[in-house]
């Protein structure tokens, strides 16, 4: 990881919410160009959430899973119309949360946003498949 990227990720993951929000805004302005940085931040948040990395002092009173969820949801929302960025996010994120799956179902049900990578016939088939997958995941979570 380049030094510049490491410094930005360290600042983003250890400082207060105002600093985190500024860095998030910077990334969302052009997520395609900053996708590696966004993924590195996701991995850092995941590492903190799982206890692999020491918890920063400024974040001792925060919900660690909420930080990861907010970050991933923001990235998915921002990239919902860009198939390449969305695909990389979903394939390379350490964990895809239920909130993101719900968000993905909404994206796939929207014919304007879902048809970018598939034809209309495949899109409706994939929407049905995704709905079934999410339903099964929700049933497992209830058990």
From TrEMBL:
<dbReference type="InterPro" id="IPR021850">
    <property type="entry name" value="Symplekin/Pta1"/>
</dbReference>
<protein>
    <submittedName>
        <fullName>Uncharacterized protein</fullName>
    </submittedName>
</protein>
<dbReference type="GO" id="GO:0005847">
    <property type="term" value="C:mRNA cleavage and polyadenylation specificity factor complex"/>
</dbReference>
């Amino acid at each position: 990881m380049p030094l510049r990227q490491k410094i930005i990720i360290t600042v983003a993951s250890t400082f207060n919410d105002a600093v985190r929000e500024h860095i998030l805004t910077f990334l969302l302005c052009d997520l395609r160009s900053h996708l590696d940085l966004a993924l590195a931040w996701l991995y850092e948040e995941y590492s903190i959430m799982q206890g692999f990395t020491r918890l920063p002092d400024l974040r001792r009173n925060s919900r660690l899973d909420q930080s990861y969820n907010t970050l991933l949801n923001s990235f998915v929302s921002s990239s919902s119309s860009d198939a390449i960025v969305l695909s990389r996010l979903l394939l390379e994120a350490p964990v895809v949360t239920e909130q993101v799956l719900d968000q993905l179902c909404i994206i796939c049900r929207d014919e304007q946003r879902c048809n970018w990578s598939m034809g209309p016939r495949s899109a409706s088939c994939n929407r049905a498949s995704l709905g079934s997958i999410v339903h099964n995941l929700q049933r497992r979570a209830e058990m």
